[in-house]
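2024-03-11 09:14:02 DEBUG pipeline.ingest accepted 1 chain
2024-03-11 09:14:02 DEBUG pipeline.ingest length=253
2024-03-11 09:14:03 DEBUG pipeline.predict start
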Amino acid sequence: MLCHNHAVCLIGLLIAGLANSLPQPSSDLADVVPRTFEALEARSESIIEQFVNLRIEGETSTFYEAPIISGPRNITTASGGTHLCDGTNLMANPKPGNTPTDALDAASKVAGFTYDGTFDTEFDDFFITRISTSTETSTMFWGLLVNYQFTPVGGCQFETQTGDHVLWAFDAFNKVYFLKVEPEAAVVKVGRSLTVTVTDGMTGVVVPGAEIDGVTTNAAGMATLKFTKVGVFQFKATRSDSLRSNALTVAVV
């Protein structure tokens, strides 16, 4: 499909070459990456902000897929109230740090979507029940993965590392595969083709029978895409029993 959001497309093209160092946030980002409140200030002398790659896959569409800068903060939801979320929840870590729920909150302010979650005092953590238009049911729940692995603790207890791939996935516990397409970005001359590989991000095994741009992956998890017009395009791999993939961004010149 044609990518209409060129900013997102350019991010996709640049992401393969991003260095591991954390870029300094601009003054504009200061408005959407809230500073911590008194409770956090009492526990840390400095504010920790960190770059991660965040993706949020809803029931039928992707709500967010881009880098985000976030850090420890008070999280407020309609169902759970206001609570500190900084990695020290339930004494999971000795020092405050950035968490997947902090990244979710920062993205909600950047992209303009809402989310909700209950707060469990026993676990000292939020349980996310809704992001944008995808709300949990009695059989489908939101799941959290970092670098394609389920986190062993909740989203306010797990501390991320710079450059981590954070994935909030709807109906995560019923998925056979968490699709991953490689390469993530490419430049192709018009009239030429590009061969991509679809794997399960969790295990690395190739995934046959996934569809990307109308082409089905073969037994080796590979699909060859052809490009007949100039432009910037974005594709995702899908399979009925699996979570849709990360975005493949292709610049056809």
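2024-03-11 09:14:41 DEBUG pipeline.report Helices lie at 6-15, 38-41, 100-111.
2024-03-11 09:14:41 DEBUG pipeline.predict end
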